[in-house]
Design brief:
23% of the residues lie in helices and 36% in strands. It is of the alpha+beta class. It folds into three domains: 32-166, Particulate methane monooxygenase, b subunit. Chain: A, domain 1 (Jelly Rolls, Sandwich); 182-254, Orthogonal Bundle (Helix Hairpins); 275-410, Immunoglobulin-like. The strands form six sheets. The chain has a five-stranded antiparallel beta sheet with strand order 1-3-8-5-6. Strands 2, 4, 9, 10 and 11 form a five-stranded mixed beta sheet that branches. Strands 20-21-16-15-24 form a five-stranded mixed beta sheet. The chain is elongated. It binds copper (II) ion (CU).
Length: 412
């Protein structure tokens, strides 16, 4: 009997171990969830995100388009987007950026952007490394870091060996950016490594630290540097100067026309303010986050300054969409994995008529609060949240309003 139990337990143990070994989920995330909730909820509100495809061959292109609203509730602890650069967030260079545009202006350089304003972007990427990659639009803000938009799992098909990135330089020469200058970089690293290594070995071949320390203690420091050392040092100095001059001349000879790296900040005008993004005003009276229920409740007064009756359709925070199942869904293009379908409940589902102010009691609940690690906002020294409310107008248009404010956790 005892042996039977032991062998049974052994069998279970083996099964569990082998099942655990079989269960090896793909390391999917690449850091977007580890960012503090305040950085994701109160900075860039991405919307209308669209990816032209979710399968792209090596060397073929995919286009990302969409808009973002810069939060007026921008956290004080990070710098404002005075130097911002539009880019792509991806796990390693799975795709290469080809072009990017912000409000129709080429986005090769950085921009100075304004809070409370809306911008429209377009990013074109080229399939590079085969495999499945999670790709996002991203706004890099100086000192704040990368603020990522909604991601999409994208399948990149083909062979990495086939990847090319041809560009025509200002002098009319066509080069492959993927390999251009690589041999030269390797060559100059080796050339500089030789004297560096020699200089290092010259000194460490003799007794180092403690014997030398003792010699200094005994007043024998003059014996530490010999005449040969001095001669070698002078030779090294002259050699380095000669090498610098030679390398500079050889670069000038190989590339007679040179321009410095461009680093200017270019101005870009924000999208014009429309009734869709200015007519509706919301004032938060109370916001709570209920930890066991993974749900957020809010009481707010909404004033409809538009010319059409509106209903609340969506609450979006940190790219997580909480949508109202009773209202026709807005844009469907955002990544499905961040979509809490039917996660938004509005008590009484009131229609707010033009000129009217209504008090809304809303609840946004879904496990995504936990899986997207947004619930950790209760650990911030200033527990505050941010997001955007989207209202569905009877005229078929979408009206939006940014909201933000303190949030109080409830523990039961
Ligand atoms: Cu991602």
């Amino acid at each position: 009997m005892k042996n039977k139990i032991i062998s049974l337990l052994g069998g279970v143990a083996i099964m569990v171990t082998s099942l655990t070994a079989l269960y090896a989920p793909q390391a999917g995330a690449h850091g977007e969830r580890s960012q503090e909730p305040f950085l994701r909820m109160r900075t860039v509100h991405w919307y209308d995100t669209n990816f032209s495809t979710n399968r792209v061959a090596v060397n073929s292109e995919m286009t990302m388009t969409g808009k973002f609203l810069l939060a007026e509730a921008w956290p004080e602890v990070i710098m404002k987007p005075d130097v911002a650069f539009l880019h792509v967030a991806e796990p390693g260079p799975a795709v290469a950026k080809v072009e990017s545009w912000l409000n129709g202006v080429p986005a090769a350089k950085s921009f100075k952007l304004e809070l409370g304003k809306t911008y429209e972007y377009k990013i074109i990427v080229r399939g590079r490394k085969p495999g499945e990659a999670h790709i996002h639009p991203m706004l890099n803000v100086q000192s704040a870091g990368g603020l990522v938009g909604p991601g999409q799992w994208t399948l990149i098909e083909g062979n990495y060996e086939d990847f090319t990135y041809p560009v025509t330089t200002l002098t009319g020469e066509t080069i492959d950016l993927n390999t251009y200058g690589f041999a030269n970089v390797v060559k100059w690293h080796i050339i500089w490594a030789i004297p560096a290594l020699f200089w290092l070995l010259w000194w460490i071949r003799r007794p180092v630290f403690i014997p030398r320390f003792l010699m200094v203690q005994n007043g024998e420091e003059d014996a530490l540097i010999t005449g040969t050392d001095k001669k070698v040092a002078i030779a090294m100095f002259i050699g380095t100067m000669v090498l610098v001059t030679m390398s500079s001349n050889s670069a000038k000879e190989a590339y007679p026309i040179q321009i410095p790296l461009q680093s200017a900040i270019i101005p870009v005008e924000a999208l014009p303010v429309t009734p869709q993004n200015s007519a509706v005003k919301a004032k938060i009276l109370k916001a709570n986050y209920r930890i066991p229920g993974r749900s957020m409740t809010m009481t707010l007064d909404v004033t409809n300054g538009s010319a059409t009756p509106i209903k609340l359709a969506e609450f979006n925070s940190a790219n997580v969409r909480f949508t109202n199942s009773l209202i026709p869904t807005l844009a469907k293009t955002d990544s499905a994995e961040l979509w809490a379908k039917g996660g938004l409940h509005v008590q009484g589902e009131p229609t707010i008529y033009p000129g009217e102010t209504a008090r809304l009691e809303i609840e946004a609940s879904d496990a995504l609060w936990e899986t997207e690690r947004l619930s950790s906002l209760i650990g911030d020294p200033d527990s505050a949240f941010g997001g955007v409310l989207y209202f569905h107008g009877a005229d078929g248009k979408t009206y939006m309003e940014e909201i933000s404010g303190p949030i109080i956790p409830t523990f039961q």
